[in-house]
Amino acid sequence: MIQLLASKPFKILNIKIIVLILIISIFLTLPLWSSEYIISVFVLIFLYMSLGQMWNLLAGYTGLVSLGQQIFIGLGGYSLAVITVLYQLPIALGIIVGGVISILFALIISQPIFKMRGDYFTIGTWIVAECLAVFFSVWTYVRGGLGFNIIAAYKLSTTDIYYMAVAMGLGSIALVYFLLRTKIGLALMAMRDNESAAETLGVELYKTKLKVFLIAAFVTGLTGGLLYLSIAYIQPRASFSITWTVAMVFIVIIGGIGTIEGPILGAFFFILIKQYLYNYPGISMIILGTVAILTILIAPKGIVGTLQERYGFEILSIRRR
Amino acid sequence: MQIIQSLLNGILLGGLYAMVALGMSLVFGIMKLTNIAHGDLIIVATYICMVMAVQFSGNLLLAVLITICFMMLIGFLLQTFLINKVLDKGPEPPLLVTFGISITLSNILLLVFGADARYIPNTLKTINIVNTEHFSISAIYLLNFIVAIVVICTLHYIMKNTFFGRSIRATADDVTTAELMGVNTKRIYSYTMCLAMVISSIAGLLVGMNYTYYPSTGTEYLIYAFGVVVIGGMGNQMGILLGGIILGIAQLMGAYFFGTGYQLLAGYLVLLIILTIRPQGILSKATRR
């Protein structure tokens, strides 16, 4: 027994688990010992982490480079607004409805959008998002360009929103981690390496891609609801804005595309730059744009990918043992 | 007879959209690159044109010539030092690099010029060339159309009849063989981008003369350009004109039947429908890549 505990793989596993528990407990107790401002920064970090994980799942693992993920943020935010403002129903319902509507909308648009390949898919998703932005600006049911003040959100404290954000951020990591170790994950990796070979061996390309697209839509929709809980004001041009996807792209590229740790690190990096340059929004975008271009040119695998290549470690391995 | 007017304006507006898309079609057809920064590059040209027009007290011809020089330099530098480095690294890196360029450019414009709507002042907007009781033709719309046809014919001539055009087409057809024949393909890509920038500068001037614009307008024109390229098929200059006209008519018919709020939406929906039914373009016979 002692020998087993002292054996090398078990030790590493032990240390990993202890560190993981330590980190999680730090985040869970954060509201007890830090300021309101720090908490609100961490709300953003966790929510953007979830967005980054989902974009990474699409672009990094499935090869679906979508520039239309803001569709689901807008739908999630608007579901929350309509449910809580127009019908005076509870917030939790609004957020869940946001996720469900996102998944339904993703299912509807998947029919035409999956006929497009590569660059066509990328721009096609963007056109859908622009369509929604224009449509919501003229749709009187959601008050057109006026938008909503999400009054219900004022009743929540930052701590409440923080715990929801933590659940969302850590939940998305766990989801991607376990998803990639299932049969879908194996199929995705086979597809990434050689699409036609995978198809020959019985991987259903369309079904696998669709499943991933729907999962990403659902989680992005939920995260969108939570984001608008902390923003508390929704308006079509901002909610369906490409800026959301810009953030996801930067988080994933800078952190490391095709790794689970990448978006975690990327989200920290992104929010810190954003907060540091809060008073100069234009400059922060220029810096992020330049950093992203340089990352692709110099270290195309991002921070985490480059470190992994050099030192050969993996914190969250998705390999099957 | 409002519908005849709308139809006519749609056709003439198609000239503007063809101009916006032509540079993108060139880059798309030759480098197989979807340049996400294309719309923003056009708007950069529009802003440079505006500044130059003020400098030269409203002489737009001189302004656009200077803009062309600036834009060729910008295009050459971007292509040589950024895009060429990632072109052979798979499909995602070039897409993401141009996306980064797009975000950076639009935010530099925001920083320098502010978020206010701008407009290149010109007298053509208020003049009607033809004026009957059923319809009228505005001078600026006619200018769009004529410029588009002239530029498309010139481009067609260059591509078919000059050594430069032949080496571009050779590179587009088969990179390896072109290199074996002594064509420096990376250099050709840089020149192609310069050529695309010349066209985009003229498109930028037209955009500024027709409509107001902001630093973030680039997105809108990128989507038009992409749509027109998709409708028309790649590397097909006549197809681009047809694509522009279809988009123009779709927008103005949307506005006519459902109100001006639906003008953009109608255009986008037609694009999505065509993208779904015929992803390889209306005129193109080639298989999808």
Describe the structure.
The complex is a heterodimer of chains A (321) and B (289). Chain A has 321 residues and is mainly alpha-helical. Chain A has a domain at 35-241. Chain A is built from 15 helices and 2 strands. Chain A has a two-stranded antiparallel ribbon with strand order 1-2. In chain A, helix 3 packs antiparallel against helix 10, helix 5 runs antiparallel to helix 10 and helix 12 packs parallel to helix 15. The longest helix of chain A has 27 residues, at 36-62. Helices cover 74% and strands 2% of the residues of chain B. Chain B has helices at 2-31, 38-55, 60-86, 92-113, 139-161, 163-173, 175-180, 185-210, 218-232, 237-258, 263-277, and strands spanning 128-131, 136-138. In chain B, helix 1 packs antiparallel against helix 10 (237-258), helix 2 (38-55) packs across helix 9 and helix 9 (218-232) packs parallel to helix 11 (263-277). The relative contact order of chain B is 0.21. At the A-B interface, helix 6, helix 12 and helix 14 of A face helix 3, helix 4, helix 9 and helix 11 of B.
Mean pLDDT of chain B: 87
Low-confidence stretches of chain A: none
CATH level 1 class label of chain B: Mainly Alpha
Structural class of chain A: mainly alpha
- As a percent range, the share of strand residues of chain A is under 5%
Helix count, DSSP H or I runs of 4 or more residues of chain A: 15
Greatest interface and its participating residue counts: A-B, 39 and 41 residues
- Outline of chain A: globular
Number of E-type strands of chain B: 2
Q: Count the strands of chain A?
A: 2
List the helices and strands and how they pair.
The complex is a heterodimer of chains A (321) and B (289).
Chain A: H1 2-6, H2 8-33, H3 36-62, H4 70-86, H5 91-113, H6 119-138, E1 148-149, H7 158-180, H8 183-193, H9 195-200, H10 205-231, E2 233-234, H11 236-239, H12 243-255, H13 261-276, H14 281-298, H15 302-311
Antiparallel strand pairs in A: 1-2
Chain B: H1 2-31, H2 38-55, H3 60-86, H4 92-113, E1 128-131, E2 136-138, H5 139-161, H6 163-173, H7 175-180, H8 185-210, H9 218-232, H10 237-258, H11 263-277
Antiparallel strand pairs in B: 1-2
